[in-house]
Amino acid sequence: MIDVVIVEDESYIRKGMVVTTPWAELGCQVIGEAGDGLQGYELVKKLKPDIVITDVNMPILDGIEMLRKLDGVCDTEYIIISGYNDFAYAQQAIKLGVRDYLLKPIDDDDFYDTIKRVILQIEEKRNMTKQRDQNRLIQEGKGILAKEAGFDAQYDSRQIYVVKARQWIEAHFSENISIKDAALELKISESYLSRLFKNYMGYTFIEYLTDYRIREAIELLKDHHIKIYEVSEKVGYNDPKYFGIIFKKKIGVSPITFKNRYMSEE
Amino acid sequence: MGGLMYGFSLNFINRTLNEQTMNSIISFHEKIHVRVSAYENILLQIQNGLKTSESLNSASRLETDNNEIYEIMYDALEGEVIKPIVHLTNLDGSRVFSTSDFPESYKAELMNKWGVFREIEGQTNDPVIYLQEMDYSREGKTIISLGSKLYDQAGSPTGYILVEMSRQVLFEEAKVFNSGLSNHMVLLDENGYTLFDSINSEMEGKFQQAKYLDLEKIGNHYPIDSLIGNSTFLNLEYRDKKLKTVTRVNVSSNIFHSFNRILTLIIVGGSLFSLLVSIILANAQARSISSPIKELISVMGEVEKGALEIRANLRNRDEIGELGKYFNQMLDRLNIYMNQVIEKQKQLRTVEIKMLQAQIKPHFIYNTLDVIKWSVKLGHQPEAISVVTNLARLLRFSIDSADEFLTIRNNIEFINSYLTIQRIKYNNSFEVITDIDEALMDYRIPRLILQPFIENSIIHGFGKTNKSDGIITITGQFNKSRSSDGNSESQFIEFRISDNGLGMTEQEIQELTFERPEHHIGIYNVDRRIKMYFGDDFGVRISSHSGGTEVVITMPKTMTGEIM
């Protein structure tokens, strides 16, 4: 899985990107979002995501300033989104190691292609480091250990809990689950898991779970024949009313309105 | 005794010449006025002839229709010996009829309503007199343009007409000055640019550089310093209110020359005599006088060649030292004045260019389009529809009208559309209270005067703190100011834009208003633009504290863009 952080000051654009992009199909997950350059800087420094998608024109710290501050902080790929078709800006961005520069209004196909391209580059990079690490371990006579390590060398042991918790959410989101169940599953205390989640993610456990469910619900609502209570059940909410409230809070419209208005792409 | 005689006769000749020359000047101007009136008639005749003709704006390309228009034009010109150049154009310059080539520069001016077209727009009924030099390959130069707006029978504007006076006319009429005396006559516009020069046509279109026509030396006096070179004895100036021109004439005559020689003899003889005496009396002192004079003379020679930055270097504490000092001061003043004029011209040009930049930022448009896209994807159709509608209004406002001045009513409509979009974008996280006095609504102000400050309130005042209970208050009303003598009161227009946002530090305010900030060019320009249009009494004041920012914008009451 590729971790993505989105930095954008316009809430519509940010929310739209987080909620309506088929992240799972692209092999990604959004692990945090920020509304200005300074928040973005703090978040990226903390989460060290694989990809950061950022707007340029933002209050407090603009995108280019944020990149300058993040220069050398972590090994992250940046995609910049801007209303400016400004060569000087683009040049500065490329100097700071930006992979791609997309112009607003964003074309979905361009957007997805760009993300796919960047992911390929990340995987290549990962393979190279894996190779290097394995070679090093083999040279040091620890080859067996390396093979037995079930996870990529990129995670430390505490991060593994968060990764596992996320995988568990993705497998069980349609059931009525809570952080308690996840902690039981991982055999650690509830408070430790919630602390770990906070340290390694831009969202709390419950926020991440809710977002994941809402995203799934949106996919389901694109089917015109489905009933709202069916969707609610499929994404782990027993009470359709409660699901309605949560959905409206996140998206701004009720599930029924969303379903009626959604012009399916066919 | 000789000096006295000389003085008397000189005075007499001087008076006679003065009268003669002044008569010539007045007669020259009368003749030009006659021509201008004739051209005004031509203008009217063509205007009336066109009222019944449809083809100026109809897309008809029929040869017969075009011929009809040319016929009207040439009929009107029939009485003129030296034909003026006539241009007709529709409002956007897409259809042009010309008795010569239609200059490229007019196309740009039409687009932006600059130059002569701005003058025409600002004038109600009489034709405009506009001084400008236009070069035509076949007909040579034109100096004075008359212009007017064209209307159809229903009274709505259809285009413009220009009638341009050829330099040849001025040249012919200037012959009144050939009275046997050598005259140098120049016609300048109000800024001191040369329109016509009877001796040195190279000077036309530039600042007049003939030293002996200098303002400082206007009037009847007979200078004796060598700055004047070939003996100038009479300078006259005549200001023509109708044409807004200044005519200067310099007369130097042989009569003067002879007198001048006598005078020179007397003076030089006298000087030589006294010099002789001084040599005998005080050799050393003589040296201390003659070398500074030489120095001064050589400096003056340099200055005459155009080296204005050179200065006399005299350390004497006597009259010659004084002379040198005054001479230097005069040069300083001349330099300052010239630089001021050049600077003013430069500023005007940059403001005109910047005016083009007084438009909605492209960034805002792209961003808004992106918001529309995502809000549709999120199922927020009503918001998306509202944003699309209002964005279209904003664009129409910027694209459809090239007028720099728009009514306050239009400006407020624009602001409302802008605010509707911004409130949707920022989830209604701020409120707007607008209170504009209805009596203001039909006055005109330059476009995009208010929007940059409102944008600053939203983005700087609220955006940086993620404030969710922001309030922007926009008020507009008349205010009174006392005249400097305290006797009369005059009304002006005052807008206040205040917010309860983050506020700005003194330094931020300084940066916004004085230092050409890159991102806030809009704000920086507003004050400059207002001052350029209306003078230094009007403009923008920003005050701020931790509880928000208040901007006060003052402008005169105007219906046209000109101060009433």
UniProtKB/TrEMBL annotation, chain A:
One of its GO terms (cellular component) is cytoplasm. Residues 163-261 form the HTH araC/xylS-type domain. GO terms for biological process: phosphorelay signal transduction system. Gene3D superfamilies: 3.40.50.2300, Homeodomain-like (1.10.10.60). It comes from the Bacteria. InterPro entries: CheY-like_superfamily (IPR011006), Homeodomain-like_sf (IPR009057), HptR (IPR051552), HTH_AraC (IPR018060), HTH_AraC-typ_CS (IPR018062), Sig_transdc_resp-reg_receiver (IPR001789). GO terms for molecular function: DNA-binding transcription factor activity; sequence-specific DNA binding. Its main location: cytoplasm. PROSITE patterns: HTH_ARAC_FAMILY_1, HTH_ARAC_FAMILY_2, RESPONSE_REGULATORY. The keyword Phosphoprotein applies. Keywords: Cytoplasm, DNA-binding, Phosphoprotein, Transcription, Transcription regulation, Two-component regulatory system. Coiled coil: none annotated. Residues 3-119 form the Response regulatory domain. It is found in: Cytoplasm. The modification 4-aspartylphosphate is found at residue 55. The keyword Transcription regulation applies. This is Response regulator. It comes from Oceanispirochaeta crateris. The lineage of its organism: Bacteria, Pseudomonadati, Spirochaetota, Spirochaetia, Spirochaetales.
